[in-house]
Amino acid sequence: MTSNPLRSFASGLLVAATIIGAFYLFGPSQAESSEKATKTVKTEKLSEDQMIEQLTSKGFVVHTEDEWNKQMAKANEQKEKKPEKKNDDGVVYRTILNVSMGMTSIDIGNALEEAKIIDDGMKFYKEVENRGLENELRPGTFQIESGMSMDEIISIIFK
Questions:
Q1: Which CATH number fits domain 94-157: 3.40.50.80, 3.40.50.620, 3.30.56.10, 3.30.1490.480?
Q2: Which of 134, 135, 139, 141 is most deeply packed, by most CB within 10 A?
Q3: How does residue 42 score in pLDDT terms, banded at 50, 70 and 90?
């Protein structure tokens, strides 16, 4: 390249950088534009009943703090009533199992065996095969723990 086109290219870059920098420094800021937007929006104060009505119409469930505490107490009682099956060392293992399209019950059994949820992955596969559910695998994410029986695990993962 000769020096003349190179100088022209460099000066073009300099002019472009100067224009962009000037626009950045002296152009409108984000705070000003959002400030204008909030001024144009009408603000109305809703009563508590109106807020609850709007939320419930959109599918939300609204509870008072007392109702929430009662539900949490019931859930804790039910959790305490259900005894967890423990392994030989007294540890309950939990895992999040991601089942994707194309996985087989052999893959699921091996994943559960690696997570120490079940003892034998092939035993799991054979149980699924005996029930005729090998083609009924549901894709998704499931929380499985070692305290669950084979029936519970199969009912969670398979249709």
A1: 3.30.1490.480
A2: 134
A3: low
